[in-house]
Write a structure and sequence with these properties.
The chain has 118 residues and is an alpha/beta fold. 40% of the residues lie in helices and 24% in strands. The protein contains 5 helices and 7 strands.
């Protein structure tokens, strides 16, 4: 069964590129509106991974990752945060599993997604 990835990213070009790349690698990909309720989308899609921008539309990815980690039932969700600013330590401290500094190499994302078992 293909791993599911939920994209929470406000850059539509980035979303399009990631959808194409991840589908080519065998992932099932879902993109959400940047201002949608992330927790509701996680409950709807039931992804294995959430790829989320730190600056997500009108929302703070840092606050969202904290909220997600406090929700019951999301313990197995892999969260990969990304930003053009080096916020790795802050993201990891708040509950992200990994951080990618933009611009990143697509292979770095693929490696992160493939190293965690379903």
């Amino acid at each position: 069964m293909a791993k599911k990835v939920l994209l929470a990213e406000d850059d539509l070009t980035m979303v399009s590129l990631l959808q194409t790349l991840l589908k080519m690698e065998g992932f099932e990909v879902f993109a959400m509106d940047a201002d949608a309720d992330v927790i509701v989308e996680i409950q709807r899609v039931k992804p294995n991974f959430l790829f989320m921008d730190v600056h997500l539309g009108q929302q703070s990815g840092i606050e969202l990752v904290t909220s997600i980690r406090n929700e019951p039932g999301f313990d197995d969700l892999g969260i990969i945060m990304t930003s053009g600013l080096d916020l790795k330590d802050e993201c990891l401290r708040h509950g992200a599993d990994a951080f990618l500094l933009k611009p990143f190499m697509p292979d770095d994302l693929i490696s992160l997604l493939k190293e965690k078992p379903v």
